[in-house]
Amino acid sequence: MAVAVVRSREGWWVETPGGLAAVETSAATTADLLADRSAVEAAVKAASEGGAALVPREDVALLSPVTAPCRVVAQMVNYRSHAKDSGLDPDTLPPAFFRKSSGSVTGPYGEIRRPEGVRLLDYEVELGLVIGTPLPVGSRITEADLADVVAGLVIANDVSARDLQLPKTQFYESKSYPTFTPLGPRLLLADAAELAGIGDLRLTLAVNGKIRQDMPATDMIVPPARALGLLTRFQELAPGDVLLTGTPGGTALRSPGALAEKVGALLPAHVKWRTFFKRQEANPAYLRDGDVVTARIRTPDGRLDLGEQRTPVG
């Protein structure tokens, strides 16, 4: 059965229907906690047997359950719906990855801070896979190996400054500013049977209560085991690292359409981008200061529930 672990400044907790049970561990990092699973199991047992003092969840200020520094790697355009929104063919799209600075990691209820001068701030709800074992370059990973490799699941929001990303045609800066990777609230430690049901998870993101993204994980182009196998051809991973597995359609940024792209290709670069950004700035879907972003990932039956993020924009 999946175990929901959360983190605060006071330490680690197991989340139960009755409240939070403290995990008696000296673990300072996510990797340390994953190495001390017996402490997590003891907290679960104590809570179920009534031997733990439960703390109301609302009394604890939760942090990201993934601690930095760590590797934060992301899959680019990994949902069919997102590919179509981007004007790409999901059947011919090659798998691609990019890195984010772990300095961008923030908690599930912290403020998303807009960098000075950024106008086109976008959202991307994603399922994060938290690595549980060392994966050297050349690791071979199959579906049967997934539970030996992935320790848990977490909600992520891959916040993106599109007006920095697009003209420079690179991702690192535009997605790595502080607060650009809210994670949590829960690190859901899952077993093999539960990880086999990842496709049943539904990713939902709303802005000010209005749903923008809503899609099952079956919309993924490259599923987790294959993605990890492709990634570890060139990138080693360690316990506590996280792979963000892509976002569904519904982001603010969408393809301008085939005709507009053909016309844009005929224009000088500075004219093309000036025209593009003028149109984008009129798009009300981009995040504004004062907006509140909520993100959920769960199965319809509640069997797997990663909780809900709630992050204001400032």
Description:
The protein is globular. Strands 1, 2, 3, 4, 5, 6, 9, 10, 13 and 16 form a ten-stranded mixed beta sheet that branches. A four-stranded antiparallel beta sheet has the order 15-14-17-18, with no helix packed on it. A two-stranded parallel sheet has the order 7-12. It is 22% helix and 26% strand. It has nine helices and 18 strands. It has two domains: 60 residues, no CATH class; 247 residues, Fumarylacetoacetase-like, C-terminal domain (Fumarylacetoacetate hydrolase, domain 2, Alpha-Beta Complex). With 314 residues, the chain is α+β, with helices and mostly antiparallel strands. About 2% of the residues have low confidence.
Topology:
Elements: E1 3-8, E2 11-16, E3 19-22, H1 30-35, H2 37-48, E4 62-63, E5 72-75, H3 80-85, E6 97-100, E7 105-106, E8 121-122, E9 125-131, H4 146-149, E10 150-157, E11 160-161, H5 162-168, E12 181-182, E13 187-189, H6 192-195, E14 202-207, E15 210-216, H7 224-231, E16 242-244, H8 258-265, H9 269-281, E17 292-298, E18 305-312
Parallel strand pairs: 5-16, 7-12
Antiparallel strand pairs: 1-2, 1-4, 1-13, 2-3, 5-6, 8-11, 9-10, 9-16, 10-13, 14-15, 14-17, 17-18
Which structural traits does this protein have?
314 residues; alpha+beta; Fumarylacetoacetate hydrolase, domain 2; 2 domains; ten-stranded mixed beta sheet; 9 helices; globular
